[in-house]
Amino acid sequence: MQARWGRALDGEEFIEVHPVEETNGRERCYEMRFRSLRDEDGTLRSDFIDRVVAAIEAGDKAALTALVGDLHRIMVYPELGFSIAQEMAPAVPEALQALVAAGYGARLVPGR
Q1: In sequence order, which residues have a C-beta less than 8 Å from that of residue 50 and are 6 or more positions away?
Q2: Is 34 exposed, middle or buried (0-12, 13-18, 19+ CB in 10 A)?
Q3: CA pseudo-torsion sign 98, 99, 105, 110
Q4: pLDDT in tens, 34-74
């Protein structure tokens, strides 16, 4: 995981294709594309991320609540059969629990 994101953050553009076997035995693939967005100075940029960070820094609770909900779905949906499991650092679930405990859990998957 660290090597993959290291490549992406270094500005390398690449595609990874991974096979996934479904419960009925059929095999499908998913594709991840890594493409860097850079400004004129060569600095990595993402307008979406910049807007989200600015909203969180401005105290917009809704932006952080939405991100907590998104992360929770990334963690729970594989158990429900809607997606495949994603690798994540051990600190990520701990951080999620801390944010939920701090009041940012309004958009969690119900019953999970």
Answers
A1: none
A2: middle
A3: negative
A4: 777 777 777 766 667 778 888 889 988 998 999 999 999 99
- Residues 76-87 pLDDT 10s: 999 998 888 888
The CA distance from 28 to 21, in Å, is 6
* Residue ranges per structural domain of the chain: 1-45, 46-112
Instruction: Output the 3-class SS for the chain.
Output: CHHHHHHHHCCCCEEEEEEEECCCCCEEEEEEEECCCECCCCCECCHHHHHHHHHHHCCCHHHHHHHHHHHHHHHHHHHHCCCCCCCCCCHHHHHHHHHHHHHHCCCCCCCC
The residues pairing with 32 across neighbouring beta strands, listed in sequence order, are 16
